[in-house]
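Q: Here's a chain of 438 amino acids. Please give me its 3D structure as tokens.
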Amino acid sequence: MNHLPLITKREYLNKVKNKSFIIMTFVSPLIMIGLGLLIGFLTNINKNKERIIDIVDESGFAKVIFADTTSSTKYRILNNIDLTQARVDVEEQEHYGLLYIPKVDSVSQLEKKVKFYSKDTPSLTLIAELEAKIEKQLTDINYKNKGLNIEKIKEARIRIDINQESYAGEKTSKLSGGLKLGFGMVSGYLLFMFIIIYGNMIMRSIIEEKTSRIIEVIISSVKPMQLMLGKIFGTSLAGITQFVIWVLLLTILSVVLSSVFGVNMSEMQSPQQEMVQEAMKSGDMQEKISLLLNEIYNLPLANLIIMFLLFFIGGFLLYSSLYAAIGAAVDNETDTQQFMMPIMVPLILAVYVGGFTVLEDPHGTVAQVFSFIPFTSPVVMLMRIPFGVPMWQQILSVILLFATFIGTVWFAAKIYRVGILMYGKKPSYKEIYKWLKY
């Protein structure tokens, strides 16, 4: 008799009725929203904190360079004071720092002579901003000293934006490349996290039943493979249920916070987000956004969604069977550590290959090879598909993935069949190899 549906149902109900599962299902979105609000609040505090930078200028250029200030940074030029006394005064007043510009005969001599004094290590962003301000102004001064017309130089400057188009006439852009890579990265990250969270849940479930000896009663009337698959399918469905609830709750909570409590998430912006918004106001940026929306419209969304589901399901089932085998082989979670590395290495490798190799060359040899290896294909192939992968490659990769899952289930079931009744001894790789021969 096939007990697989009954085991799947039992495992699913056992998970969703668990108090910790219910609590985390409803508390996790609150924690996520709380963290988002906290990050926004801390960002605003950091943004509103006024930084005073004192300037000792012996060159005479500072008045022009630092004529403008921002809401968070104030520049104060110190007159009639030497550097030694200025350092003492600024430190006593606990200002953010002191910028020193020495007197030179030529602006080109300032390249290595400008100094910034501070109590603590200054912000990298601030130092970069100071360098940019000084470089721009001194470069313009250098142009004038050499008899060059700055306005004509600016007019003569040409910016190149290469238009990209396939041989078939399909237009694309650098923005679309980022969009495609973003889809792949998000897909791979979701799969990676899903495997880690719910794969461990499957492993812990098997260890708990094994240590409580309940498994001895169950195994007398159920085949080991059916029991293992039932646990994998039941836990997977519980994970999907939890994920769907999280999405719904996060959406509802965001709407409630915006309407009832008057919390506008868009107001909690970092300086980088504000710069992006300012850039979007320009006509050039609006043109790029229009091109990006057109690229989104032209994406093969049906292909992406279908393949995402197939690779997501196949990848999770493949790794879940390995987690189940590990759970059956050991008596406690401490003993699982020696067997986790062979599982984690392919996953980590897939993320790195996808993130670096696919970005550089999505149709290169390395990207193609790893998109066919079943233990890395769910991540790597998902990252390649938005860049245009022939359908036969996608289908072949899916077939190899599910064929490997079937083989892995057979492999894991043999370990499961023996290991599920083994107690009191930490197994080695040699012993597990012997179990495969039983």
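Q: Can you summarize the key feature?
A: DSSP finds 17 helices and six strands in the chain.
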